[in-house]
Amino acid sequence: MSKEAPKLIVVIPMPDIFLLDIAGPCDVFMSANRVLNENPGMGAGGYELLLASPVDTKKVVTKSGVEIGCPALVSEIDRPIDTLIVAGFSRMRFQSGHPFFHWLKKTYPKVRRIGSVCIGTIALAEAGILDGKNATTHWEFSQEFQYRYPAIKVDTNPFYTRDGNVYTSGGVSSGIDLALALVEEDYGREVALSAARKLVLPLKRPGFQSQFSTLLQVHSLENSIAGRLHPWLIRHLAEALSVEQLAERCNMSVRNFNRVFQKETGLTPAKFVEKLRIEVARKYLEDSDLTMDQIAEKCGLGGLVSMRRTFMRHIDISPSDYRRSFRTSLHTLEI
């Protein structure tokens, strides 16, 4: 009986990206190999990793300055690829029409599955691989990505998505979540769980990308009504803050205030205030010892039940779970 050949995983490290974009998925696949080698009854074959450069040199320098040596250029690969993963993306180095996109488009039909880490989704989009499909990417680039590629259905809430044989993952560390999901798909939950345990990782992270995202980019609203109101709003969050009160503060009619506010921010005044309440509550949860009830009162979020409901609606995680995940490290050491 012939031994099952390992699945060839080609990881493409894009220049000028975070090392974790590359190292995270690679370490997951190698951890899975170790599990399979230690437990022959759990599966056979495992993985073979190949780093392939998308540029004309086999040396790829990451954002941290660490240099990655790739054994091959993508154009030199002449073996069947099981899984192809584009790790990150350099928007400055790869303009539309770049030869790498043509290579991706030509190679995609020959692979079992293809995926991306972080904004590696841009490469898949430029190659036309994501047209008409569901995808995710780093939450920070979601609006820009959706505007640039309207044929793609973007949802930056999940850590990773699958549409057919196309897999996309969110920001940086989400490549680890995706790799664990691929291992589970290939060899089952026990192998994936064992691989995660070796790396001291959860098999599935609780929550969604939204818990890491910023709900309001106030710095981009400096010259808007919202930007001018922001300091005053912060001081009065415990109050009811009706639209009439905000309009009066700006010496505008309610109708005109609503119209201008939505045009400048894309949000109704009520939705903006609600998001601001959540942002301030998050800071209290991260940096203070205030109780949940105190935070809810200071931020105008009603009681604990109301605050929990609002948190779940906006960032898909409860206030208590958020505090456990994001509380200042010093507090954790003192406990």
From TrEMBL:
PROSITE patterns: HTH_ARAC_FAMILY_2
UniProt xrefs under InterPro entries: Class_I_gatase-like (IPR029062), DJ-1/PfpI (IPR002818), Homeodomain-like_sf (IPR009057), HTH_AraC (IPR018060), INH-QAR (IPR052158)
Pfam families with a match to the protein in the record: DJ-1_PfpI, HTH_18
The HTH araC/xylS-type domain, residue ranges: 227-325
SMART domains with a match to the protein in the record: HTH_ARAC (SM00342)
Top-level taxonomic group: Bacteria
Cross-referenced Gene3D superfamilies: 3.40.50.880, Homeodomain-like
Annotated GO MF terms: DNA-binding transcription factor activity; sequence-specific DNA binding
Protein name: AraC family transcriptional regulator with amidase-like domain
Species: Dinghuibacter silviterrae
Keywords: Transcription, Transcription regulation
